[in-house]
Amino acid sequence: MVIEEAASQLEALGNESRLKIYRVLVRAGQTGIPVGQLQERVGIPASTLSHHLKRLVDAGLASQERQATTLICRADYRSMRALIGFLSDECCAEEGCVASSR
């Protein structure tokens, strides 16, 4: 992962509402969650939710899929793991604990 991509994703998650939304998406699993249920869980207006979801999608952290009349929202777990790895891969690298923790 390049540092610019990580910075963009962290910036997207740096908003309290988007972080709440993302946590609900992560909890929903691979099946995702209909946007209406997501709105109920986070308790924000539809237009505000749409704005925040677009930001998460643009950052590569989430996806949306239309199924008939329902919009399903999902966390992108591959991107999430890549971001977590980016943050933790070099943990304590200068102390030498990285090799011993793997």
Automatic annotation (TrEMBL):
SMART domains: HTH_ARSR (SM00418). This is DNA-binding transcriptional ArsR family regulator. GO terms for molecular function: DNA binding; DNA-binding transcription factor activity. Keywords: DNA-binding, Transcription, Transcription regulation. Pfam families: HTH_20. Residues 1-95 form the HTH arsR-type domain. Gene3D superfamilies: Winged helix-like DNA-binding domain superfamily/Winged helix DNA-binding domain. InterPro entries: ArsR-like_HTH, HTH_ArsR_DNA-bd_dom, Metal_resp_trans_reg, WH-like_DNA-bd_sf, WH_DNA-bd_sf.
